[in-house]
Amino acid sequence: MRWLLFMARVAFICNIFFVLCLLLRHTEMPLSQALNGFIIIVGWIMSVIINIVLHSAILFFNLRKQPIGLPQWLTVVNVFFLLFQLAYFIFSD
After folding, report:
1. Residue spans per domain, the chain
2. What's the rounded Cα separation, in Å, for the pair 39 and 35?
3. pLDDT at residue 85, as a whole number
């Protein structure tokens, strides 16, 4: 399940970019256009998609009672970010 661990780490990095997107949205940071675009694509789009795919795979393996081998803190942090992202996109204006 090394691919699941890799995917969980990528999701964590994308979630950090999601936080950067929130900071970009509510503050003014003098960044280049290319860096701004990269942060927005990774933070707004990829983080949600990767989180949904990751947690679908985790749910699938848990239902089949197969060991996952992910650190508990990484799973909890990624679940928190997924719930926060879904709530943010549903309830934000």
Report:
1. 2-91
2. 6
3. 93
